[in-house]
Structure formats: structure tokens, C-alpha cells
Amino acid sequence: MLYNALSTLAKFVIAAVAVGALLNAFDISAQEVLGDLGVTPDAIIAFVQDGIDWALPNFLLGAMVLVPIWVVIFLLKPPKIGR
């Protein structure tokens, strides 16, 4: 499964570089595209930061509940014999 994920990621990176090079050949930049959409790089960074600021406390709160439950279940599971 890890191999499939890495393979897909490598293919995506190669395709993104190829498309970026093609767009660059036509003198199209990322700032022009973002400007046409009415978005600035600073707005994208702020959006990502807001998402992280929201997700991190919720992730930590959920982990504080789930990790002890997982530890108890792991400790109470009977051992596997003959494997």
C-alpha cells in the first residue's frame, strides 16, 4: 500500500512539473492565474493557517480520548498462539 501511495505521488509530481513547464512555455505564471481567480498567495497561506489552527486542537482532543482506549484494548486482547 505504501508503494502504491509513493508511486501515485511520484506520478503526480512528474505530471505537475510537466504541466508547469508547458504553461511556462506559454508565459503563464501562477501569480497571473491566482490574480485571475481573485486570490492572493497571502490569502491562501491565511486559509491554510486557519485550517491548521482549527484542526490541531481538535486532533489533540480526540487523541487524548482515543489513545487510552486503544491502549486498554491492546492490553486486554488475548495473545495469539501458534503464529
Label this structure with key terms:
single chain; 83 residues; mainly alpha; 0% strand; elongated
What's the short version?
The protein is mainly α and 83 residues long.
Gap between N and C termini: 23 Å
Unreliable stretches (pLDDT < 50, length at least 5) are none
Total DSSP E strands:
0
Mean pLDDT: 93
Which H/E pattern describes the elements? HHH
Count of DSSP H/I helices: 3
Biggest sheet, open or closed, and with what strands and sense?
none
Helical fraction equals over 70%
Description:
The structure is a single chain. The chain has 83 residues and is mainly α. Helices cover 82% and strands 0% of the residues.
Write the layout of secondary structure elements.
Layout: H1 2-25, H2 30-37, H3 41-76
